[in-house]
User: Fold TraR/DksA family transcriptional regulator from Phytoactinopolyspora halotolerans.
Amino acid sequence: MTERTDSTDVTANMPDEQAAALVVGADEDPWTTEELEEVRETLRGESMRLREEIADSEHEIADLLRRSTTDGGEDQVDAGSKTFEREHELSLAASHREMLNQTERALSRINDGTYGVCESCGNPIGKARLLAFPRATLCVACKQRQERR
Assistant:
């Protein structure tokens, strides 16, 4: 798979004042261009890694499906094992797709200047949280509420 490039990357050569304009918590220092570029590179690397893992999972799933249709006369244990393996690969692929979606959404939010704003309440997510988990779209309070449901 090829890496998608976005021609609307408004922060590619972002002056410090534009990076500093991104939302941060009241007790946090503004974003620097270097910090934001580091986050962007982390997300791009994660995007490439996830695309590779999705491709690997899809190849493995296709191989498992091909083997399951050509293996007649297998016993129940073998059939169950292959079904489990296939379901596991499908689950991994779905998880990787969701992570890729989150990663690309974070890159898009950097590009449009909304990175760091909680998608639920509109409050700052927190720079420290974003540095630790760059794909975060919710502040800690909203994430905790979501997990309790």
